[in-house]
Amino acid sequence: MYDEMGALYLPPGAGRIRFSRKEVVQMLIAVAALSFAFFMIMIPANASTYALTYYAVVSTIAVITGFLMHEIAHKFMAQRYGAWAEFRIFPLGLLMAVVFSFMGFVFAAPGAVYINGRLTRQQNGLVSLAGPALNLSLGAVMMFVGVTLPLTDLTFAIYLIGRISIFLALFNLLPIPPLDGYKVATWNIGVYVLVMGATVVLFLFSMGII
Hints:
Blueprint lengths: L6 E3 L8 E3 H22 L6 H32 L3 E6 L1 H11 L9 E6 L4 H28 L4 H20 L7 H8 L1 H18 L4
Helix pairs in contact: 1-2, 1-3, 2-4, 2-5, 4-5, 4-6, 4-7, 5-7, 6-7
């Protein structure tokens, strides 16, 4: 339901999270671009129609759960602290995501949640941590399911979605501004080392290195 300001309110009990029309449109654009990017790096050569459909579905679900929910986690935490928080696309990031996918790499920064408000250093750190923490938790659970259940197209899809979530956590935890990792490290280096360490271990596991 939209109000006179164009903000979409979720039902009571949903944490008072709200979305503007502009934000929803830009989220959909970012999801489409990033889904295409992951699709491009996953499809095998001479893929069948089934394979194309399979990887299109996997990449879209992975981006919704790994990227979109990551951004919503930031937004939810910021709004809980009383700050204004809305997602905006980053045009150059959108272009880089698509172009780099043809080179076999995903630049996973098509946009971000912009925040305005008086947050303390700790609150800002927790807002920044919310996205990677969601990726880490989701990725760990989905990869565990994927490797413990018998191998099928479904369990492999679950594993891939979890693997992408871990990749997104690692990418966003790089200690480079304006990424989440820089903000978390600036707030609490101990928390950063702990979360980054767990993410690196899971990423290496997902790559078959450990």
